[in-house]
Amino acid sequence: MRKLIPLKAFACVVFALTAGFVNLARSEVDTAKALADVEKTPLSKGPNGETPSPASSVTLTPDEIAKIQGLKAKAAIVMHYAGNDWAVAQVAGLKAQFAKMGIEVIAVTDAGFKPEKQVADIETILAQKPQIIVSIPTDPTSTAAAYKKAADQGVKLVFMDNVPKGFVAGKDYISVVSADNYGNGVVAALLMAKFLKGKGQIGLVYHGADFFVTHQRYDGFKKTITDNYPGIKIAAEQGIGGPDFSGDGDKATSALLTSHRNLNGIWVVWDVPAEGAISAARRIRFSPVTTLRHGGMMPVFRLRPCKTPNP
Questions:
Q1: What integer is the mean pLDDT of 67-87?
Q2: How many domains does the chain have?
């Protein structure tokens, strides 16, 4: 299959706006209407420009499920990291669906967002001879050889969010599934603009790594703000690399607020670094008002000075 399939497990995925919205002239932006138009169509494309398909387009008949159950297949789940509720939910969903199909999950690994650890995880799993690996590559380049070895051994690969460099859908892997991350970035920008009433200065905390979906979120947010809201200025940006994303979010936000004390809002690339960002804002005596789009872990928050010192 050569299509990007939005993850059904994202209960609150925001399949954002019609593609025409982001090209509207600045004076024509109607933020309330744009937010009301969500879920009409996804804005994201796949890693190689694939057109997305909805999760509902993939179904199995009872006969197909019975046939799969008869295979007595084994699967492994190779996570990039397991440090948040999102990762826990993905693993739970995978295990539940595999159980329905009679597929044994023989391993669940956590790379801690370290490519070398993920490569070692894959090597260890291959010794157990799984038929299926579901994985989120930590880095598309440095993990590619390990995934290629798995594919060459006949393991069926399904990726989430990221794809190894040089891999071709339908040849090297079955498919890639994800939320509409570009759309989530657009919606986060619309929320920011709504909260700020189209005026103010903001900072961005982005993921400074080669990771497809976090780049999509950043691109969607930044393009929507810069193209449609001339009254909102992106005053500064800070990148984070992990694996201590909460700590990185804290440090990045501290740097932003130290050098730009007049910021009115901050966008953070997902919820774990946002936890650190909120801690930093409170420590510097700002009171963050947060909105979190769970479909893409997309926090945006306004900042206002605290009236009394925080404890």
A1: 92
A2: 2
